[in-house]
Amino acid sequence: MAVTNGNGTKVEEQDESEIVLSVRDVTVAIDDKLILDKLSLDIKRGEILGFVGASGAGKSVLLRTILGLLRKQSGTIKLFGVNVDKASDIERLRIDMRLGVLFQHGALFSALTVQENVQVPMREYLDLPKKLMDELALLKIELVGLPPDAAQKFPSELSGGMIKRAALARALALDPDIVFLDEPTSGLDPISAAEFDELVVKLRDTMDLTVYMVTHDLDTLFTACDHVAVLGKKKVLVEGTIDDMLKSEEPWVKSYFRGKRARQLDLAARA
């Protein structure tokens, strides 16, 4: 069924039961500076969304607002069909347990081992015996492709790629339904970044995850993302598949997705 959005454009109405995250007319200002202005966005179950935009446009601001780390001035955010502003404490707790987050640069606790870092959400939300938490943490560590001996290492002993994987293991600690990844391949070499992208797709397929990924990595957008949303002018300018991005005449989108490097990636992906 076609409906008309605020820009007068006809779009297909989505089945609400398939929408994991719904953002409607969200406005966020920081120190009286308007960052997001009536922004709307949906993410469907099982989708890997790449959220992209110019530096400073507000990508991480929206992520933190969705997670409740920043206050919005207006608008509605629904997770799993529940308006988070109207959720009871019990409903909010249940929602939080269905979310996993990988913050930019990993944000591991430096004084904790990898295994202890992965156990942080378990200690926060569950009441489990230590032996069981140890076994579950080792399972998550193996799941993200880290060797068993990484469990007893501290973040300072890990490479950049291992830190990202350890942070992903922590994000998966409670078997979430949706994971939020903030620049997950930032700072990684091309091979490590490609391997991480492959891991995310594999985990989505095997764990039935929905993935919200803030990124600027063209390789990731071309190879891992089912859907792309572009932030600009304080709103979502364009959203759709990579093919939609390549056809867009929006100046920033055109420059970003049809520049020299993007064309090379597109040719490689289609080869």
From TrEMBL:
| UniProt KW keywords | ATP-binding, Nucleotide-binding, Transport
Q: Which GO terms describe its molecular function?
A: ATP binding; ATP hydrolysis activity
Key word Cell cycle present in the record?
A: no
UniProt-listed InterPro entries:
AAA+_ATPase, ABC_transporter-like_ATP-bd, ABC_transporter-like_CS, P-loop_NTPase
Reply yes or no: does the keyword NAD apply.
no
Give residue ranges for domain ABC transporter: 21-258
Q: Which domain of life does the protein's organism represent?
A: Bacteria
Which PROSITE patterns does the record cross-reference, listed alphabetically?
ABC_TRANSPORTER_1 (PS00211), ABC_TRANSPORTER_2 (PS50893)
Q: Which family does it belong to?
A: Belongs to the ABC transporter superfamily.
**Which PANTHER family does its entry note?**
PROTEIN TRIGALACTOSYLDIACYLGLYCEROL 3, CHLOROPLASTIC (PTHR43023)
**Name of the protein:** ATP-binding component of ABC transporter
Q: Which organism is it from?
A: Mesorhizobium amorphae CCNWGS0123
